[in-house]
Amino acid sequence: MKTVDLQLVTRPDVTIIPNSIIDKDMLDANELQLKVYLYILRNTGAGISVQISSMADYFNETEKDITRAIAFWEKRGVFNLASCPCAAKASVPSVSRDDFQTLTDTYDFKELRFVAETYLGKTLTKTDLDTLLFIKENLNFSNELIEYLLEYCAERGKKSFKYIQTVAISWSGDGITTPEEARLQTAKFSQRIYSVMNALGKKSEPTNAELNYINRWYDQYGFEADVILEACRRTVLATDKNRFSYCDKILSSWFTSGVHHTTDITQADASYHSQKKQTESIPRKVPGYVASNPFLHFKQSDTDYDALEKELLQN
Question: What is the DSSP string of 137-169?
């Protein structure tokens, strides 16, 4: 994740914006999302506590709109508000006893509670109900969308409300408002996950660490599937151990080298082999000659597989 420590990129008199925001994230953010990002960044640098309600008043927006804007940035991994003590948190708000009773006593919510308890196979606690209220009221999910959310998580054996809330925030950040949109998103997610798993010879469910790798390649590096699958192909040909770590080093190298498409890989390969040929032509007995580190070549363009495999086997 490209999580940014908000306190490291701000000062009381200056707000510093990482280049990655301008180069990539700004392209997908709408006006309110940009305003929320800058507002949090600026106030955090000045040591000012930021709350969702204060942002809603400042921008003349609803708290639900502010929460969705925050979810957009958390989804992209730009920052983790929960890790910053003076920033607003997109977490479950605890409602008052009277408000809680009023909201949960409605027929609409009682029906939703019954569906949730059926899917999850348990009686919901007060904390569970708070989370369900947050998803419904703050993220503005319809009952139909929440039902699909519960179905989706339960089918994957993920029945904790912490996981359910994380998925809900992710969907909200992606602008999902209907079960149909959620189905399309989950189908796309499943396709990209399992195409990589298959390409690396993995038949099991992905672990959290493996999911983090895949999400980094798609979301942080911004690679298309064909680039990632080419890295997987090279990985499988090179090693049968630590394949995710090996593939990550290839893709990190390509990302640093500015690779965006498969055509760029050909150019990176040619550049690497040209540099390697020039280096190997230097007489080793020339005074001041220093043996080339293969990992310098690796980071400049393409992969030195022999050196990489030696490093992985030593870990």
Answer: IIS---HHHHHHHHHHHHHTT---HHHHHHHHH
